[in-house]
Design goal:
Elements: H1 2-18, E1 28-37, E2 43-50, E3 54-66, E4 74-83, E5 86-95, E6 98-104, E7 114-124, E8 127-137
Antiparallel strand pairs: 1-2, 1-8, 2-3, 3-4, 4-5, 5-6, 6-7, 7-8
Length: 139
């Protein structure tokens, strides 16, 4: 019985010394800007500033858009952004050139990257610029 009285407090002390698991990193602000040729939708480049800063090339995968030439359209576009630290997928849900984005499926330093936010599109001098504001978690 005496051994039990000594062992129980020692077990509690051992558990407390191990600590608790680390909490997930809080989301932080990020701005990602993608550009493409307005006339034929050819991707030009991308840059990011905030939790991580990088730049590189991007490509489109799935494009599903409805509305035709009505001027009122909605859709989803899946992209892959490649930078110096790895790559990640960015999915856009759009209605008339603005909407929401989501990040996932990264490689390299972006393996645990995920986040969400909103975007707007501006066309000038033959270039469409997608400015994406939101929050990401990098670890």
């Amino acid at each position: 019985m005496r051994q039990l009285r000594i062992a129980a407090p020692l077990a509690v002390v051992a558990i407390l010394m191990l600590g608790t698991p680390a909490a997930a990193a809080p989301p932080t602000s990020e701005t990602i800007v993608l550009t493409q040729v307005a006339s034929d939708f050819t991707p030009i480049d991308w840059t990011s500033n905030g939790s991580f800063s990088d730049s590189g090339t991007w490509s489109t995968g799935l494009i599903a858009v409805g509305g035709g030439n009505s001027g009122n359209f909605a859709g989803e576009v899946k992209t892959t952004l490649v930078g110096s630290a790895g790559s990640f997928e960015m999915t856009f849900q759009t209605r008339n050139g603005s909407g929401r984005w989501e990040i996932g499926h990264g490689t390299g330093e972006y393996a645990s990257l995920h986040g969400t936010g909103t975007f707007t599109t501006v066309e000038s001098a033959g270039v469409s610029t997608f400015t994406c504001l939101g929050e990401v978690i990098t670890s």
